Amino acid sequence: MHHTLEVRTRGKGLYPCTREVAQWVASTKTETGLLTLFIQHTSASLVIQENADPDVVLDLADFFERLAPENFGYRHDTEGPDDMPAHVKTMVTRPHPFRIDADEPLDSRDRRTYGAGTWQGIYVFEHRSGSQRRSVVLHL
Amino acid sequence: MHHTLEVRTRGKGLYPCTREVAQWVASTKTETGLLTLFIQHTSASLVIQENADPDVVLDLADFFERLAPENFGYRHDTEGPDDMPAHVKTMVTRPHPFRIDADEPLDSRDRRTYGAGTWQGIYVFEHRSGSQRRSVVLHL
Amino acid sequence: MHHTLEVRTRGKGLYPCTREVAQWVASTKTETGLLTLFIQHTSASLVIQENADPDVVLDLADFFERLAPENFGYRHDTEGPDDMPAHVKTMVTRPHPFRIDADEPLDSRDRRTYGAGTWQGIYVFEHRSGSQRRSVVLHL
What we know:
Three copies of one chain form a homotrimer. By secondary structure, chain A is an alpha+beta fold. The first copy, chain A, is about 25% helix and about 35% strand. The radius of gyration of chain A is 16 Å and the shape is elongated. Chains in contact: A-B, A-C, B-C.
């Protein structure tokens, strides 16, 4: 089974999408399985990270901004100074498939994400400055 | 088929777990298949790396310590100075599924890991300073 | 279904292999499925990146050269100064499985790679200085 999720972003940062992923998984009535998620872009990433403290995602965004700054002296800058750093950030941050189990909800009121791990959330990590529509493909 | 492996760590560094993974794969009597491994944490990674020279894993640990130092000026430090660097390191080091074949042992006396590649080993890369119990989920 | 592709490299840089992957996928007559690619080495990576502007892959190679320089002071240097940086680069750049669909060609004349995303290409990212033969395993 597969499904494409559209996530709208408004500039650099991490956008949660655990709830949308959990809703689709629930709608498939799957008992257990392997969930593979990937994003069809190379200027935005899909990551699994802690969702307990909102500061974590801000710190992560800061780190990657310093790791791959806009003023690096790239050849490719026709799409703006945020484009090549976006490719670099995508290259070093990739999602991984993980096992889901109907007895361990992917998203719940206390924000725990079982399967991926307790207290984990799924995020689209937007690397471009402008607004974008990102396609996330789910495969179960 | 799936299985959860518990790996105990005692501070930062790479802890081999190829043997434990190989034992479980062998116990399933699988001829060929795709093995997906993931770790249910965002402050420790699961990596596949060279296991021929023990210096390699020390150098890798050093590199990531310099890449994401503890004194970066993170907002999120309530869990200690080693917590945010742990999230960063996890984000840039993710495992990948790989094919296994009963004719190519995952672990052998000469430490070759076929399937993942010759001379490769599977490691839990602990990013926290204290002792931890890490859950590694295997899906075949 | 699985297949091993051999890619020859001649020093550091990104080598496209989308066409070879697409040819094998087409030969399997698969309608839809999940394609998992991995490289059986830890001194070369398999990446999905933009293939519209050839400058992108040059910029990426530059970035990773600066991220993990040869003169870092590694312990492990018996295989040459390019060996440990190769392990580091491999560790931070991993491929991800993605869904393929017979209606969305993986490779076409206009160089679009559907499935992985429009305008994306699959590359072997060679991290060693000398010539190498790299084994890429495809699993569908």
